[in-house]
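> forwarded from #structure-qc
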């Protein structure tokens, strides 16, 4: 690893401070995370790229409004392959709403049974998974309380208090700022990969942010970062082993600085 890559890697480690939730959040243990998921302080849903993410109730609606159209477009090929069309999604949404209303929270398997009763074909695990993902992307369902070792789903409108919507530029600015503050130095391609948005959207976000972001040319790449976020000078003798698919690895299109 070159000195240049080491500097980028150190800055990212200092800025991200996430890794796995219980690794880097001081004083947080598994039980605290489980409580937060169960009481709805944090929600687990498909948003960005797409993959599972933890988001707060205050963020889930504007993030979905910004990123869900791109995710649905990216999933269109698989929807056609699974023969899922608008009519199938409407039947699924109706059955899910009926099963989950009035605070009912059900596991994936239980929702599969509810969809079958609603005459929705859920043959194969992929079909059920895609139906549930579409319901998440359209703001119908989100994570419910844990039931033993199993997660459940709940209606988002019953789980999350109403919040004021953000217009698209405001949402894009918010996501842009958060990306580069926690993952900088990062490129536009990194931002587009992490968010699932287009390069045009990534460029627009940086343009809106203006002087809130600092531009740095490192090697032959242009990076962006939050000027208020500085690499920590104090070094720790402690080494953390990162879990598979940690955001520190997966959240970047170009991972050469990590290697």
């Amino acid at each position: 690893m070159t000195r240049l890559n080491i500097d980028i890697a150190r800055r990212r480690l200092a800025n991200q401070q996430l890794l796995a939730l219980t690794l880097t959040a001081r004083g947080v243990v598994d039980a605290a995370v489980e409580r937060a998921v169960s009481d709805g302080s944090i929600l687990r849903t498909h948003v960005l790229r797409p993959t599972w993410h933890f988001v707060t109730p205050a963020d889930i609606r504007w993030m979905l409004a910004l990123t869900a159209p791109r995710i649905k477009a990216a999933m269109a090929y698989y929807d056609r392959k699974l023969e899922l069309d608008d009519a199938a999604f409407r039947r699924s949404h109706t059955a899910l709403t009926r099963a989950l209303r009035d605070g009912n929270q059900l596991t994936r398997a239980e929702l599969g049974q509810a969809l079958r009763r609603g005459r929705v074909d859920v043959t194969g695990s992929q079909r059920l998974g895609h139906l549930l993902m579409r319901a998440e992307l359209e703001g119908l369902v989100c994570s419910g309380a844990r039931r033993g070792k199993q997660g459940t789903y709940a209606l988002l409108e019953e789980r999350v208090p109403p919040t004021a919507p953000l217009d698209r530029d405001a949402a894009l600015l918010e996501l842009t700022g958060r990306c580069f503050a926690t993952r900088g130095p990062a490129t536009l391609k990194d931002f587009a990969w992490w968010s699932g948005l287009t390069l045009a959207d990534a460029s627009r976000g940086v343009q809106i942010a203006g002087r809130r972001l600092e531009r740095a040319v490192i090697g032959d790449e242009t990076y962006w970062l939050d000027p208020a976020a500085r690499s920590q000078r104090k070094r720790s003798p402690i080494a953390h082993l990162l879990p598979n698919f940690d955001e520190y690895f997966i959240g970047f299109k170009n991972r050469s600085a990590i290697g």
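QC bot note: The chain has a mean pLDDT of 88. The chain is about 50% helix and 10% strand.
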